[in-house]
What we know:
Mean pLDDT of chain A: 95
Low-confidence stretches of chain B: 462-468
Order of helices and strands of chain B: EEHHHHEHHEHEHEHHEEHEHEHHHHH
Low-confidence stretches of chain A: none
Distance between the termini of chain A: 52 Å
Bound molecules: flavin mononucleotide, iron/sulfur cluster, FE2/S2 (inorganic) cluster
Shape of chain A: elongated
Shape of chain B: globular
Number of strands of chain A: 4
Oligomer: heterodimer
Helix content of chain A: 25-40%
Radius of gyration of chain B: 22 Å
Mean pLDDT of chain B: 95
Largest sheet of chain B: 4 strands, parallel
Strand content of chain B: 5-15%
Distance between the termini of chain B: 41 Å
Largest sheet of chain A: 4 strands, mixed
Amino acid sequence: xxxxxxxxxxxxxxIIARYPRPKSALIPLLHLAQEQDGHVTDEAMRxxxxxxxxxxxxxxxxxxxxxxxxxERTGRYLxxxxxxMSCALMGARELMLAAxxxxxxxxxxxxxxxxxxxxxxxxxxxxxxxPCLQVNYRYRFKMTPDGVEKLIDDLRAxxxxxxxxxxxxxxxxxxxIPADRAVGAVDPDDVDGPPPWIPVxxxxxxx
Amino acid sequence: xxxxxxxPGFVAGDRPRIVTSRFEFEDSHTIERYLATGGYAGLRVAxxxxxxxxxxxxxxxxxxxxxxxxxxAGVKWGLTPEGVYPRYLVVNGDESEPxxxxxxxxxxxDPHQLIEGxxxxxxxxxxxxxxxxxxxxxxxxxxxxxxxxxxAYETGYVGRNILGSDFSVDxxxxxxxxxxxxxxxxxxxxxxxxxxxxxxxxxxxxxxxxGLYGKPTIVNNVETLANxxxxxxxxxxxxxxxxxxxxxxxxxxxxxxxxxxxxVFEIINGTxxxxxxxxxEEFCGGIRDDNDLKAFVPGGGSAPxxxxxxLDLPFEGRxxxxxxxxxxxxxxxxxxxxxxxxxxxxTLTRFYAHESCGKxxxxxxxxxxxxxxxxxxxxxxxxxxxxxxxxxxxxxxxPGSMPHAASxxxxxxxxxxxxxxxxxxxxxxxxxxxxxxxxTLFRSEFEERVAASRSRTRIPxxxxxxxx
Lengths: 207, 468
Ligand SMILES: Cc1cc2nc3c(=O)[nH]c(=O)nc-3n(C[C@H](O)[C@H](O)[C@H](O)COP(=O)(O)O)c2cc1C
Ligand code: SF4
Ligand code: FES
């Protein structure tokens, strides 16, 4: 399946409605597609193009700029090992070697069973906890080569299924804007004048 | 000195706490805890005053932006063109500068504080819609902020007629998809419009004048906004009583690398010195294994390096600038005497070369060249010419003299920040900064490396930059 299922199509509609211009939903919708299928399919890009009013080429052109979108089959677990300065100073290379050994693939590769994709990543905003890595964007801090092996064992055995959803799922909580509380997205060109709480007296037109 | 399992890296101390006051509670991210600890009080105070007065309060607090440039928030809010609406707030939660770790903690541990800060900013500056842009790779932060927003909508703190007033604003959670350059404010806006995250040329137009959808837009960092509830509640005077006149309040700083106890600290702004941070018992407690300190990066991967000579400088923007570097995003990376300097520089240059968006030639091509040349030097295949070539390529990104630290050993005087640049944003120069610092301060290590080169066969440099 690669077009949005009914649930996701409804979510897509909600997301688009939050932006003054639909194109702003392009990246959130690519995430939604990746969550549904594990990577972004051609069909999904065509549908996103229809939904936000651009060409499929624009969807690919924009999506391919961003590291997180995967346009080919990706392991159930994407292991990103940070290799930037703080992690490099604290032994990132040893983590990568251990992961390559345990998985039998080099950085960039996916295991034959489709379980793991291994990547060298950049600074993950956890530099004090170096060396660190992420599995499907869930952190493991102060890792050791042994820790990497154990992590891979645990993932393979399904022992971390509760904590780590399959690749593509980011936050498991979505934002809901209740209709009776929403202000609503207005096209910027349809707005003139200051919002109601800005006193007009300050400079005649709102400061 | 106290740490909490639920706030990895954070170290509490006996110091004023403005943005980390709830970190001691395991449930600090819930609305129950937030309300039980004074949460949303600042918003109530703000809503009880005319918006321009709240703006004035923030202006007189001299709250400096924490995203890197250190521009005063209250002044920035005043730069929107008169009478032009709508105006937007875009929250920069894209934290990805090497060494930086604080915004993620603030989002994970106290999302309501950030939401309250957004509301106060929107009220004060007349911003009618807020987009909260969180880095794509931060799943937990996204979850926490989404949950907090859902709670805040249900309880009437966000949305239409907030707390029964005529103040109405939606906060829309948005997240990125992995691209460092998107942290640059105009690239952030491009990304939010559904485009590739490539910076816009500025000047002439800054986002405050022409931003999201071409409308006035304030971009503020997460930590900057997280200060607002405290300032609204306690007033600018109480805020400026902490820290120094030019750098008031507190500041989040992450110290990583070769120290005994790396950590994230809320420090008093402007007075705490690098020596305090690296060696103080309440901070990092010294260099690991009691080794000597070789060098440190004082303000995130883009900052020129410092030596032990600079340890007694306080964490204060102007002084650090005069000494040849910058405070940037509050990130110190420490290298001890065992560090392989050319290899360390390469980890940063590779980062910036990799993150180039490809829009400017000096960054796209130059960054890649710097990376490739440095790679062959590190791998023992460089020549002495390569060292000159590095400086030549760097000079095409940053013409003229480059800022660097003073060194008593080398008899070098400081060249103050900033540099000149031929690129649209700072990614290009940032690829050169580590090369320049390392070569200027540790040239002998490079010379030893090329003298010991195993091979005379040059690895060709083929520039392929601009890939993401
Ligand atoms: C390449 C580049 C990356 C940046 N990354 C970030 C970032 O991740 N987070 C951030 O808040 N500011 C970042 N900035 C700074 C922003 O452009 C902007 O100055 C800041 O978000 C403004 O907020 P402040 O005034 O509250 O500091 C970056 C700047 C550049 C040039
Ligand atoms: S300096 Fe580099 S990252 Fe910045 S706009 Fe130019 S090419 Fe893009
Ligand atoms: S360098 Fe690895 S998390 Fe920052």
